[in-house]
Amino acid sequence: MNATRLMLAAGVLCICSTVLADEDWSRFRGNGATGLAGQEIPTTWSDTENLAWRTDLPGKGSSSPVIWRDKIFLTTYSGYGQAVESPGDRAQLQLHVVCLSINDGTILWDYELDAAEEEQTVTKRVADHGYASPTPCVDDRFVFASFGPSGVVALTHDGEFKWRSSVGTNTAGFGAAASVIEFKDIVIMNASIEDGSVYALDKTTGKVRWRTANIERAWTTPTMVNLPNGKKELILNQKGAILGLEPETGKQLWSCDAIQDYVVPCVVAKGATLYCSGGRSNKTFAVRAGGRGDVTATHLIWDVPRGANVTSPLLDDGYLYWSHDKAIALCLRASDGEEMFRERMPTRGRVYASIVGDGQHLFLTTRDAGVLVLAASPKYTEISINRLGNQEERFNATPAISGNRLLLRSDAALYCVKKEKTD
User: Fold this and answer.
1) Chain center to CA of 4
2) What are the Cα distances from residue 57, in Å, to 15, 78, 223, 378, 380?
3) CB of 375 within 8 A of CB of 360?
4) Dist CA 192 CA 214 (whole Å)
5) Is the pLDDT of residue 325 over 80?
6) CATH number of the domain to which 315 belongs
7) Residue 3 above 80 pLDDT?
8) Is residue 114 classed exposed, middle or buried when 0-12, 13-18 and 19+ CB atoms within 10 A define those classes?
9) 315 to each of 1, 36, 181, 233, 338, how far by Cα in Å?
10) In the predicted model, is pLDDT for residue 251 greater than 80?
11) 231 in a structural domain
């Protein structure tokens, strides 16, 4: 079946601007990849308290929602692999880019694509994440979504197809994970797993603008950092080294020896200081960007045997926080890597969602036991644990924040948490 678009609402207007609004959350972990945004986010909620709306989604997925003005975009998959025991017909696998109204959760449109033949056969490991794990990104014209071996697709804000481009069809492990990011007139995709490369695609046409090879075992989403001299660098953490690339050309500027294992968490930055974690043995490196050549001996600030294998950290007021994939709440002092706290989260299962915060509170999402809310403080202070949905739902996705809304995505539904108005 050819790619089809199911328009569920007509006359959808696109409110666009070249300037990001305070309430936009345009990529994985928000603008600047900080994981920080919002104000007046509730610290307690349930299916009957401080829940603005819940919307059933057309299929499963682990991607995070992204936000542009009054629209939410996310991805799902359907037709195959919804249950490992009875996966269905592999040929029926469909991939979706979905747009919802942020005001009431109404599905505005749902664009369906055929999956590539190279997509993995479902296994218990693959089903943990599914076929819609990478988070989309959005600018003032388009929404861009990656589906690993099924390629990168661009749609307008009202669901009109623009292009679809392949960035390789290899698969490994639990499947695709790296998310697309946008920069000026290009879309940047870490296709380490699919092709051993990072790609820059033209936003308008999808054609390759540059490709940098030899990117090894990196499931991580790239990070753009601003240097004191006004220039930008594209940072990619891969097996064996942290890399600094020139974003306009893909040229490698510098490298720093680092994690000798595959890498999943994305890099967080404060100015030119980068905090890079990963590896099954868990290590974190603090490195100064802006160097040239091999900077291992000159730009490494500190490294410690702490961090996370899957989830990305949050940097807030001089401290690094994790919702560790082994269900641990972890805090390190950013200046030297000293551990501030290490506490068990309310689950024995794996954690796949990364931590987000609003500057006062930290939100740590578990798959099966709700969201743990902590004070944004190096002293461990638990505020609440909040559950939504039924016992079968799994929350793999990192939340998104827009103003006073917290968006939580399960494998079945999207929830909007918002403080109820009081008379």
Assistant:
1) 26
2) 24, 10, 29, 37, 35
3) yes
4) 8
5) yes
6) 2.130.10.10
7) no
8) middle
9) 45, 9, 20, 19, 14
10) yes
11) yes
> Is there a domain that residue 394 lies in?
yes
Tokens linked to 393? 């739902």
Strand partners, 235: 223, 244
Is residue 42 within 8 A of residue 419, CB to CB? The reply is: yes
State the residue for tokens 């944004």: 376
Residue 270 corresponds to which tokens in the numbers above? Answer: 């404060």
Which pLDDT does position 18 carry in this prediction?
A: 41
Full residue range of the structural domain in which residue 157 is found: 4-418
Question: Which of 83 and 319 is assigned the larger pLDDT?
Answer: 319
Structure tokens at 55: 């919307």
Identity of residue 171: T
Does some domain include residue 423?
no
Entry pTM: 0.93
In-domain check, residue 91:
yes
Distance separating alpha carbons of residues 97 and 73, to the nearest angstrom: 7
Is residue 4 predicted with pLDDT exceeding 60? no
DSSP letter string, 24-91 = -B-STTSGGG--B--SS--S---SSSSEEEEEE-SSB--PPPEEETTEEEEEEEESS-SSSSS---GG
How far apart, in whole angstroms, are the C-alpha atoms of residue 298 and residue 288? Answer: 9
Planar angle of CA 255, 259, 264, nearest 5 degrees = 100
Domain count, the chain: 1
Render pLDDT for 341-400 as a digit per residue (tens, 0 to 9). 999 999 989 999 999 999 999 999 999 999 999 999 999 999 999 999 999 999 999 999
